[in-house]
Design a protein that fits this description.
Elements lengths: L3 H16 L3 H13 L1 H23 L2 H6 L2 H23 L17 H13 L2 H9 L12 H35 L2 H24 L6
Helix pairs in contact: 1-8, 2-3, 2-8, 3-6, 3-7, 3-8, 5-9
């Protein structure tokens, strides 16, 4: 069994990860604002399903196998970095709008909402890197089954992510209204998010492959 203090430390690391702006947060906020809370929650369930896949891959050792193949890892790493830079440019470019600004998007069916959330998270290389670089640090054969520990840590991360993202999804409209009433803060938020996304892209691009 994982010691309680280590589990709490891992939960704190998971909290830092989910509070870092990225594709999941941007998608959930945008969808909640454009199509309502119910659509946001359905999209969140898709994101959580993506986390489950990442967790099972890590627990079964598939993520380690993936990172052992330089070509596959580098391809996803550079694709992920390029996507984050694209999102950063969307925040910086002239006439860009903040993720918290209400915008009209075509409504899509629940099945497509779920699938979009699932794919957004499944193809997020930051999550795969998190599961390989952070989760193994909290696993020890001395504490019992490595597979069981990986599942316990994974479900902890999923629980933290679900709670935070649910709060963001349900309050997205109120957050947007606050920003709309304060236009100056919209610009600050947009540039701040762009800087964070660009920083994440650089960090991801320079991430060294871990030995397995």
């Amino acid at each position: 069994m994982i010691p309680a203090h280590e589990l709490l430390l891992f939960a704190a690391a998971a909290l830092v990860m989910v509070l870092t702006p990225g594709p999941n947060m941007i998608y959930l906020i945008s969808r909640s604002i454009s199509q309502g809370r119910e659509a946001g929650v359905i999209s969140l369930l898709g994101v959580i399903a993506g986390f489950v896949v990442h967790m099972l891959a890590a627990a079964l050792g598939l993520t380690a196998l993936f990172l052992a193949v330089p070509l596959a890892y580098d391809a996803v790493k550079w694709a992920g970095a390029a996507y984050l830079l694209y999102l950063a440019w969307q925040a910086f470019k002239p006439g860009a709008r903040s993720a918290f600004e209400a915008r009209q998007l075509p409504a899509i069916r629940p099945a497509r909402l779920f699938l979009a959330g699932f794919l957004t998270n499944l193809l997020n290389p930051k999550i795969a890197v998190f599961y390989l670089s952070i989760l193994p640090q909290f696993v020890s054969p001395a504490h019992g089954s490595v597979f069981a520990q990986s599942l316990a840590l994974g479900f902890t991360q999923i629980g933290v992510s679900f709670a935070v993202n649910l709060a963001i999804t349900l309050s997205a409209a109120r957050i947007a209204a606050w920003f709309v009433s304060r236009p100056g803060w919209l610009v600050v938020q947009r540039y701040l998010m762009g800087c964070v996304l660009a920083g994440l892209a650089v960090r991801l691009a320079t991430e060294q492959r871990r030995a397995v």
